[in-house]
Amino acid sequence: MGPAFNRLWASSLVSNLADGVLMAAAPLIAISLTDSTVLISITGAMVMLPWLLFAIPIGAMVDRVDRRYILATSNAIRSAVVGASALAIATDQFTIYWLIAAAFVIGVCEVANDTTAQSLIPQILDQKHYEKGNSRLQISETVIQGFVGAPLSGFLFALAIYLPFFINSIGYAVAAILALSIPIQYLQEVRKEVTDQDKPGFFADIKFGIKYLYNHINLRRLVLTTASIGVCYSMGTATIALFIVKELGLAPRYFGVILAIQGVGALLGAIVAPRASQRFGRSIMMTLGIVLSSVVLLLQGFAPNIFVFVALATFGGFTIAQWNILLMATYQTVIPNELYGRIHGTRRTLVWGMMPIGSVIGGVLAQYGLRIPMYVGGAIATIVALASINFFLSVAKSVEVPR
């Protein structure tokens, strides 16, 4: 896969360890600070809100600046914010409002980190390796986050609630250093060479990215459909930690273990995705992934105990991994790399930028019952997915790489 991809992968491995630690620790610290379902859902919404506010300008920046520096800076800022939060927790100065503010800043950095990493894939890999590259990143994310970071976080949290945040801060710092080590001489520079006179301005770049997405009929519908389903997912999972601990009676120290078990499904999905795509076709596997994961979200609301819930969540992780990997390969095939940052930012503004709305709606619904967000979100997502089957089959098939 090449030295550039290997360094990117190494940075991803370390940052995913940090993400896994934070993924389990943040909900636990939230529910220890407040019982308000609205405030808890707002915390989750703050992580996603930056996609609505900053994805487009950050995407334009990714197309103009050395992408290694963006990766390094975003991880360095996350390290500083989480480190300061750990200190505040250790000195008993931390509040739910501090957590909400920290979540927002971390969310901004996540926008920059994710957009840059996805933009690097078509820059350093041949098209035939897109699915494999995305699969490796997904596998490392699943293994490190789910099987190492999340369980470790749960037990560290039991020892001292500030420990996961200190570990998280160190992880992001190391990821920043690794990002800077990506060998630029191996990067395939595919952006168009233009003179300073001909080079469009920053806002002209943003405008072009929005216009490109709007005029691309299939790309536009794919983004709008996945955005609708994404709102439903964020609605259904807005207060999932509270549901698992309060409704299903799980001890908080085992929360990370539950995330690890769920990660088995995502790991298998990531391993199987390229092979299944090659055998059955990307279109079929993408469609199955989005439809089945929507149905699983609905069924989770009916889970009578933690065992049934985890079984459903594990299968859901398998189907979502299929969808995510093949969807990213589809985008990387369709979108020209010199435009990728802007288009990626624009589509993520719609897809992920709408998720905070779903999170807040889920928090409001949860006041009337912790299962209701999954009922409502799962039902709507299933309807949208079933109604879009023909479209998903056609759009994915049109960009499949010949075998």
Describe the structure.
It comes from Actinobacteria bacterium BACL15 MAG-120619-bin91. This is Major facilitator superfamily (MFS) profile domain-containing protein. It is found in: Cell membrane. The protein has helices spanning 3-33, 37-62, 67-90, 96-124, 130-159, 163-180, 202-215, 217-237, 240-247, 255-280, 282-300, 306-334, 340-351, 355-366, 372-387, 389-398. By secondary structure, the protein is mainly alpha-helical. The protein has one domain (3-184, 201-398): MFS general substrate transporter like domains (Growth Hormone, Chain: A), CATH 1.20.1250.20. α11 runs antiparallel to α16 (389-398). The model is unreliable at 186-197 (pLDDT under 50).
